[in-house]
Amino acid sequence: MTASKLLPLAIGLFAVGVLAIIAVFVLFATGHSDLPLWLNVTATYLPAIGLALGIVAVIRKARRKKS
User: Are 45 and 16 in contact (CB under 8 A)?
Assistant: First the structure.
């Protein structure tokens, strides 16, 4: 996958992960304590995966311009 296609994917994954984190905080603040596993996994891993993919995409793009 090229860096130009990887960056929008990274941004999307990061955004969905941040929305999941916000949902967890809102649900916890409203008194829900037993949240679904998929929401916890999404809030935990998607922002990190999106950030890592974004860093990889930026590094690949910078190296391609240098060469």
Answer: no
From the number of C-beta atoms within 10 Å of its C-beta (0-12, 13-18, 19+), residue 43 rates as buried
In terms of DSSP H, where are the helices of 1-67? 3-29, 37-66
Q: What are the tens digits of pLDDT across the range 4-56? A: 789 999 999 999 999 999 999 999 999 998 999 999 999 999 999 999 999 99
Q: What is the DSSP letter of 33?
A: -
> Are 60 and 6 within 8 A, CB to CB?
yes
Say if pTM beats, i.e. exceeds, 0.90. Answer: no
The owner of tokens 């891993």 is 45
Distance CA 35, CA 56 (A): 32
Q: 27 with 35: CB under 8 angstroms?
A: yes
